Amino acid sequence: SFIVNANAGAGTVNISDAAGANTLTVNGTAGADTFTLSAPTGTTSRVVLTGGSTVNSTDAEIATLTVDGLANTDSFTVSALTRTATLTGGTEADTVVSSSDAAAVGLSDTSLTRDALGAITLSGIETATLTGGAGVNTFTVGSWTGTANLDGGASADSFIVNANAGAGTVNISD
User: Fold this and answer.
1) What is the dihedral of CA 102, 108, 111, 112, to 10 degrees?
2) Tens of pLDDT along 70-100?
3) pLDDT tens digits, residue range 94-130?
């Protein structure tokens, strides 16, 4: 198990473990944090935090990736993340951002799914900003109690909102 506690400075942590069954938790700060999660090589994951702190890991060696914003207002961008992960917001209004040309995108209070990309487990996330791409995208929102901002991008996209399954707000642009 690995725990990386971010601070206000820049630095890099590279994690390698041949056992392959470990968990990696990246904790933010008590302030407002911006996390960018990506897969720079397709087999590695990278978490970059405001201020430049970077955590790199090999996906096959880390079974579970969790990013915890801790206190304050946090933002998590997962557009280029290809593995599963868990995002935990802080005590304030937290946001998840994803821009991808996935054929299907699903959102609920507890998950963000994107075809051919890893499922993201959500906890304490109040706003989602999801953008499609040039292809045809289908967005499905259900059991969502926050604010969802959906932008289909440059195509004839579909939006399915199950309004009776949550008390949230869904803003649609296509």
Assistant:
1) 20
2) 989 999 999 989 899 999 997 789 999 999 9
3) 999 999 999 999 999 999 999 989 899 999 999 999 9
Q: Tell me how far CA of residue 91 lies from CA of 31, 34, 149, in angstroms.
A: 11, 15, 21
Type of residue found at 96: V
**Parallel, antiparallel or unpaired: strands 44-49 and 34-38:** antiparallel
The C-alpha atoms of residue 24 and residue 149 are separated, in whole angstroms, by 30
Closest to 108 measured CA to CA, from 165, 35, 26: 165
* 7's tokens: 């601070």
Which residue from 153, 58, 62 is spatially nearest to 102, judged by alpha carbons? Answer: 153
Chain position carrying tokens 């207002």: 73
Amino acid at 87: L
Tell me if 3 sits within 8 A of 44, measured CB to CB: no
Q: Return the residue matching tokens 């989602």.
A: 128
